[in-house]
Amino acid sequence: GAGVSQTPSNKVTEKGKYVELRCDPISGHTALYWYRQSLGQGPEFLIYFQGTGAADDSGLPNDRFFAVRPEGSVSTLKIQRTERGDSAVYLCASSLTGTYNEQFFGPGTRLTVL
Amino acid sequence: AQRVTQPEKLLSVFKGAPVELKCNYSYSGSPELFWYVQYSRQRLQLLLRHISRESIKGFTADLNKGETSFHLKKPFAQEEDSAMYYCALANFGNEKLTFGTGTRLTIIP
Q: Is any Cβ of chain B less than 8 angstroms from the Cβ of A108?
């Protein structure tokens, strides 16, 4: 079956602009995660959804970052007033409900802020 | 705060030689540990997890609570093992993963 998909695969924007990154999880997966991976670093947790609600948003770096999952499937990560430091690969993952279930990752969106 | 440390950014090993990728963690509880792998031009994927006690592609990892380590081992390296390896930790009751910085493993033919 289809895995996790993310669009766009690459996004180049200018400092100060608004961007939206989309994630389509595996069908039936109720848990959805966003991570950010900067060059030379491991993925860093941003936010976790269980169904439609954000169960843990402790990783969002500031209020410029926001994510939604209105119907419990597709999720959108929104970044306002982008800064050069936001440049990174944004990864989405999904899993079945339950502690320690395998997270299935998407290919990522590479965001470049000029 | 929980933390995962992978001290080696790069590791080169000859084909057929043993491999050990180091991972240490700090967490004040009972964590679950994972190894994720990213092959060239592929997405990040689970290699193995402590709770399953399994061997995948010849790799094993033992959780040593005394040394707070979860090193990944394979007795005989193969060329297809070349990849980026990440150690990760999850809290019980909270499914987010905390990753290390990764080790790039290169197998020399």
A: yes
Low-confidence spans in chain A with pLDDT less than 70: 1, 98-99
Give me the pLDDT at residue A1, please.
59
Q: Residue B93 half-sphere exposure, CB side, CA atoms within 13 Å?
A: 2
pLDDT for res A87: 98
Chain A hits for B6, CB-CB cut-off 8 Å, are 42
Give the separation between CA B52 and CA B34, rounded to whole angstroms.
10
Q: How far apart are CA B20 and CA A60, in angstroms?
A: 34
Residue B75 per-residue DSSP state = S
Q: Is A3 touching B (CB cutoff 8 A)?
A: yes
**In this structure, are residues B101 and B37 in contact, taking their beta carbons and an 8 Å threshold?**
no
Extract the runs of DSSP E, i.e. beta strands, from chain A: 5-7, 10-13, 19-24, 31-37, 44-50, 53-56, 65-68, 75-79, 88-95, 104-105, 109-113
Query: Is B86 in contact with A107 (Cβ distance < 8 A)?
Result: no
